[in-house]
Amino acid sequence: MRTTIEDKDLAKSLAAQLKMISDAYSTGKKDVIDNALNRVTSVREMDGNGLFDWVTDDVDLDGLEDRIKKVFGKHQD
Is this prediction's pTM over 0.70? Predict the structure, then answer.
């Protein structure tokens, strides 16, 4: 059993969390159940800690190297 739901989406959807856990229990396999419970717990904790507010998919990487050099100075060999 493999799911493709993103962590942020899973954290916000109680229905998706319940489905993931229910599907895991329906397999009867301890490792699958443990993995589902761990993932749901983990994403709920990340959401509660505000991690998903810090992460963005639209990071602007243009000029990143120049900005790093400006902040930290030029690398000296």
Answer: no
